[in-house]
Amino acid sequence: MNKTWNNKAWWMVLPVVLLVAFSAVIPLMTVVNYSVQDTFGNNQFFWAGLQWFEEIVNSERFHDALARQFLFSGLILFIEIPLGIFIAMNMPTKGLAISVCLVLMSLPLLIPWNVVGTIWQIFGRVDIGLLGATAAKLGIDYNYTRDIGDAWFTVVIMDVWHWTSLVALLCYAGLQSIPQAYYQAARIDGASQWAIFRYIQLPKMRGVLLIAVLLRFMDSFMIYTEPFVVTGGGPGNATTFLSIDLVKMAIGQFDLGPAAAFSLVYFLIILLLSWVFYTVMTNLDKQGQ
Amino acid sequence: MNTTVTLPHSPTLAPKRSRLTRQGIVMTVYLIFLMLPIYWLLNMSLKTNEEILSTFSLWPQNFTLANYKTIFTDPSWYGGYINSITYVVMNTVISITVALPAAYAFSRYRFLGDTHLFFWLLTNRMAPPAVFALPFFQLYSSVGLFDTHIGVALAHCLFNVPLAVWILEGFMSSVPKEIDETAYIDGYSFGRFFTRIFMPLIASGIGVTAFFCFMFSWVELLLARTLTSVAAKPIAATMTRTVSASGMDWGVLAAAGILTIIPGALVIWFVRNYIAKGFALGRV
Fold first, then answer.
1. Does residue B260 carry a pLDDT above 60?
2. pLDDT over 80 at A94, yes or no
3. Is B218 within 8 Å of A110 when comparing Cβ atoms?
4. Distance of alpha carbon B123 from alpha carbon A219, whole angstroms
5. Is residue B9 part of a domain?
6. At B247, is the pLDDT very low, low, confident or very high (cuts 50, 70, 90)?
7. Chain A partners within 8 Å of B249 (Cβ)
8. Which of A4, A17, A19 is the best residue to mutate to test the B interface, defined by the most B CB atoms within 10 Å of its own CB?
9. Is A130 left (phi over 0), alpha (psi -120 to 50) or beta?
10. Residues of B in contact with A87 (CB under 8 A)
11. CATH classification of the domain holding B174
């Protein structure tokens, strides 16, 4: 669309800018303030320069949490994106079944995150949970509070349960926008199922898939509540992701300086990645026009 | 137009019946996978604690509603629901009110720094709430917003306003600009055009946006819990109370969990026809 140049449009954006400034910029400045200071209590602060940043960037604790975070987000994308596409392609095509599927699929998305954690905490328990008890009856040694592998399995399957529907619904929306004529043309050409998927459906889903990857990557990168409720970051530190570690440091130990530096590094990583995604996405939009 | 690849009389595609059965099997398996944990929670909420801990059964042997009764008769329990719904509704109203004009500006005009501003807004959606928890606590305590509904609603604007702008901009861009111009030629003022003509045109978009604001505010807990203590405590935080001296009160915990699912289920039912497009943020 041809947009007209009009600087008065700033007046329409102003309320948003003010509101977000209040709820984002001021708190962020507080974080910056803490990150360069040291305190010995009593609200006395001393200039500490970049000391905290050096400490965090070089600390093993941060490296480990970051590595776990990348592994987790990678696993999530690797499982949820293909599974979501697969589910979307198998959505029913007519009648009441569509509504039923849509409603049931959206249900996990609207459950408060700590309730999601509670559901899986209960579900996986060996004594009272369906999953844990079934595994025990089958002779599988499954215990997410003691075994690292089981803890990871539980946290990942929980996220797949929670969010795959989002990917599926996005892809479904993309598939819906493909005109029937495309399929008819493919049929005349005698295209195989795979060719239809590869050359018609996948390109048409490109835009929504990018949104899906963006949302899933970002949200899994800042996941906190669900794994915290289920494993509490354990066993040991096996499922301590960045947010969990940060909250531990900031509110548990009240190490304001290091925690603030941690926050900023964490935020910068996310910022960098979202900038990459955003650039790719707007370029795609331009190509599409 | 609701078929994807299933075409009638198509000789080259797989036979229709086998496709339909495969679809049926895939969807059934997936939906069972989604529903099982929820069913287990429902199952537990209808049992007594003794039964939960002593016998393992797929359905309640001694059916009881006592757990739900506990919640509905104790003000500190049902108060949690009222608090949650209050700040969620406040947040939805605030987000949409400020996002509407901004989304219109982004979809219709170019102005100084517009792309940078849009990206900056989006980064706030990407900001981990954990980064903001502590500064929010200090800021809101100092201005007297701590433990108020409006305080939580404002904090949730951090991620809901950018999202609302993003979705609404998508929907507004699909309305041709000629409509605006025709209305102005017909002598409509901006305010009248916006409320009488434009908003009805993007009504489904506003509905979808409201749904998303509701959803993300309803499910968020880290900020809501950090910013409240008693007066505005959300239901999800109240649930941690079930750990008592005599151990976990599993039945009540499960019942509270089931009750947090219900508002979401109701909202989904109302917007079910727009869900798919809405999740694509109006960009299909």
1. yes
2. no
3. yes
4. 12
5. no
6. low
7. none
8. A19
9. alpha
10. 26-27, 30
11. 1.10.3720.10
- Residues of chain A found within 8 Å of residue B265, distances taken between Cβ atoms: 103, 107, 110
The correct CATH number of A61-288 out of 1.10.3720.10, 3.40.980.10, 3.30.950.30, 3.40.50.720 is 1.10.3720.10
pLDDT band at A76 (very low <50, low <70, confident <90, very high): very high
Domain count, chain B: 1
Structure tokens at B80: 């949690």
**ipTM summary value:** 0.83
Instruction: For residue A89, give the nearest of A216, A201, A211 by alpha carbon.
Output: A201
User: What confidence score (pLDDT) does residue A75 get?
Assistant: 94
The overall average pLDDT reported for chain A is: 83
User: What is the pLDDT, as a whole number, of residue A41?
Assistant: 59
Domain boundaries, chain A: 61-288
Burial (CB < 10 A; 0-12, 13-18, 19+), residue B110, is middle
Cα-Cα-Cα-Cα dihedral sign, residues A162, A164, A170, A176: negative
B269 — contact with chain A (CB < 8 Å)? yes
Identify residue B255 by its one-letter amino acid code. A
pLDDT score for B3: 45
Give tens-digit pLDDT for A169-198. Answer: 888 888 887 888 888 898 898 888 888 888
Residue range of the domain that includes B101: 73-279
Q: Does any domain span residue B135?
A: yes
pLDDT in tens, B40-81: 889 888 888 777 777 777 778 778 888 888 888 888 788 888
Where is average pLDDT lowest: A219-223, B25-29, B119-123?
A: B119-123
Residue B13 forms part of a structural domain: no
